[in-house]
User: Which sequence fits this backbone?
């Protein structure tokens, strides 16, 4: 149930850990008229800005919002909101890892390894247990992501030759190279205690997340 006229907040549960409140303006309907079941809104605007008045059925909104595509679009919008105008790389990566940890379910580690020279990754901002500090390019899942230039989505880390176990709780992992100006500058590493935690939609969505980091100040 929602009012035929008025302002309010729509509370959306976007993961088991995170809720978002969106302001709602419901004023398009004459009093005592039931809103039509199909309503009009702009998902992109809605998901990246909390200031956009929307006309929406709550059920429809939640169905839409619960899709992974919109979930990741929302994350990218939140990353822009957190980092736009801030030039400090470490501050921005810290907030992105905190946001990912808050937003994604079933993780035990999420963060960045930065390419310090062409042969070595060094631990950057993260959330989770203390982790290995240096990873040679070509080693482990992270080093393989750099060597191949491709996302490594690993359903069972124990079956990945050379996997580096920083946290014994990890059973699956996804590592995405972060590109800036055509070159790899870092990797985003996400570990889960669940086997096969990351599906193809997560991979596509997280590739949009790392693409949103391209214009950070990587040349410190
Ligand atoms: N498992 C990674 C090492 C980093 S930790 O998971 C944080 C790897 O094999 O490269």
Assistant:
């Amino acid at each position: 149930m929602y009012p035929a006229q008025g302002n309010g907040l729509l509370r959306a549960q976007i993961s088991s850990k995170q809720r978002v409140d969106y302001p709602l303006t419901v004023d398009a309907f004459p009093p005592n008229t039931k809103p039509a079941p199909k309503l009009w809104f702009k998902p992109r605007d809605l998901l990246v800005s909390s200031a956009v008045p929307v006309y929406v059925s709550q059920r429809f909104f939640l169905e839409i919002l619960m899709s992974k595509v919109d979930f990741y679009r929302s994350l990218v919008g939140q990353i822009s909101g957190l980092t736009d105008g801030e030039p400090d790389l470490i501050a921005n990566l810290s907030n992105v890892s905190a946001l990912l940890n808050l937003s994604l379910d079933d993780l035990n580690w999420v963060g960045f390894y930065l390419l310090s020279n062409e042969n070595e990754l060094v631990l950057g901002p993260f959330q989770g247990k203390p982790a290995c500090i240096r990873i040679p390019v070509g080693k482990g899942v992270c080093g393989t992501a750099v060597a191949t230039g491709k996302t490594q989505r690993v359903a069972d880390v124990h079956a990945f030759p050379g996997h580096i176990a920083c946290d014994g709780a990890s059973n699956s992992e996804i590592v995405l190279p972060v590109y800036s100006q055509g070159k790899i500058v870092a990797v985003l590493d996400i570990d889960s205690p669940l086997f096969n935690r990351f599906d193809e939609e997560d991979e596509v969505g997280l590739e949009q997340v790392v693409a949103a980091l391209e214009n950070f100040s990587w040349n410190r």
Q: What stands out?
A: Residues 6-65 form one domain. Strands lie at 6-13, 19-26, 109-117, 120-128, 134-136, 152-154, 172-180, 183-192.
